[in-house]
Amino acid sequence: MGAREKSYVFDGPTGKETLPELFAGRSQLIVYHFMFGPSWEEGCKSCSFWADNFNGIIVHLNQRDVTMVAISRAPFPKLDAFRKRMGWSFKWLSSFASDFNRDYHVSFTEAERATEVVGISVFHKDASEDVFHTYSCYARGVDMMNGAYHYLDLVPKGRDEGDQKPHPQAWVRHHDKYGV
Asked: pTM of the prediction?
């Protein structure tokens, strides 16, 4: 458990919020680091696949003293427009004006790597209002959080991603682009 060393401010549906305020009166916070860069026109399709799992579980997490939010680097108006397009109700905030994503190893400078990676970070706020980083996982380490993958793992062909090019999740689309 590591103490938070910086103050972070995020843009969200109610304006500016600090990391401690994101807890919304609870002692535990899960942050889904949703890949959506400032210059992108829409969010990552794989992150969207995960986000399709969020709406229904948040009320249950709240009952166990857990708040869950998504955070991306894109400016809040872009996030909010995409959230509405996708029909999501979970809280999504922008870290555009802070080092939050970089500090939690999901965004990088041009010199390091010009990309974003998916991740989950977990925080705890104690009775003194001090915030601690308790856990993070990245890339395919977030697979356990995707309910659709668990169901695919039950069927005879499984995820059936072995022949997908250029990467295993090449089959994934935003749910409004499957053309079903």
From this structure: 0.88
